[in-house]
Specification:
Elements: E1 5-23, E2 26-40, E3 43-49, H1 62-73, H2 87-91, H3 98-116, H4 120-124, E4 130-132, E5 134-137, H5 143-156, E6 160-164, H6 171-181, E7 186-190, H7 200-203, E8 214-215, H8 223-232, E9 237-239, H9 246-255, E10 260-263, H10 271-283, E11 288-290, H11 297-307, E12 339-341, H12 354-360, E13 361-368
Helix pairs in contact: 1-3, 5-6, 9-10
The structure holds N-succinyl phenylglycine.
The site of N-succinyl phenylglycine (NPG) has 14 residues, from loops.
Length: about 375
Amino acid sequence: MRTKISGVELRRIAMPLVAPFRTSFGVETSRDVLLVRVVTADGEGWAECAAMSEPRYCSEYVDGAQHVLREFLIPALPKDGLDAQAVGRVLDPFTGHRMAKSALETALLDARLRGAGESFGSYLGAARDRVPCGVSVGIMDSVPELLDAVEAYIAEGYVRIKLKIEPGWDVEPVRAVRERFGDELLLQVDANAAYTLADTQHLTALDDFGLLLIEQPLANDDMVQHAALAKRLRTPVCLDESIESAAHAAAAITLGACSVINVKPARVGGYLEARRIHDIASAHGVPVWCGGMLETGIGRAANVALAALPGFTLPGDTSGSHRYFATDITEPFVLADGHLDVPTGPGLGVLPLPDALDEVTTSREWIAL
Ligand code: NPG
């Protein structure tokens, strides 16, 4: 079904975080988010671009994403309209820029699904109406501070804890969390590419703690080295940054570079590619889970829908809105019994609240087609 598009609004919002979030690649204190709103003959569609302020997690960054959308991706959309499922093919001649592409495709899918009265979850193939939620815990100044934070998240109901690690903050915090909260706690770690293969011996110390997985221990393009490391560790290796497409996922599985995949739709160019990764992983018996990038309610809604697919067998980084923001731009996602409900309304099932959105808006531009 072809949808005629009249234009796209690119809107920037500034969202202060409730607490600084530190990873091995930097500290976030506020989220500078690019929102995409498409206006089509079917109605409007919304999406959130996951690119961060600086190109540290990957090469994309929010000013660059807005630039490539304005100058290349939006002008490439055919004037007489297109099927939202064909967006990927239309944008394919432009290399990279997956986060920008993902936002444009998602907004067009949202418009189409809202027009058709179908939810994003139903369209993607969701198999449940709520998803179990984990929480990602940043690097802290001290172990007692970390234990307090983990205790509070467990009290809120989070069913799985992910600790950010880096050289100098790995075995000790993991041991402390295990000793304090016991062996039953679902626990995993995320290095964001902070180690090299020379650290193998050191990383084997983590094998004693019954972790669900170690995420992205080595550099993004170290696929072969990840395969070598995976042979030496008992802890399952999960890839995040290394997997930018279904082709990468297939290669990683074939190589033995990972036995679990963190699927972040923005990182792989959109929810349709994310579903392809889910399908490939499922066919190989490789579990996947849904990552997060400090999304507002708009991005969170789409992630929760994806996390409801049958192959997402591990809890995701699909935390409640208040994990990051005092006030969200949508109705907040609130944890109930450690789960979030999959939105059931048409499209993403949530919309920005106009007043909350205006309050945090820092700029808007309209690109007519
Ligand atoms: O809960 O939304 C969330 C964040 C989960 O740790 C998280 N995200 O490396 O997975 C990651 C990390 C991240 C955050 C990556 C921001 C990139 C940007």
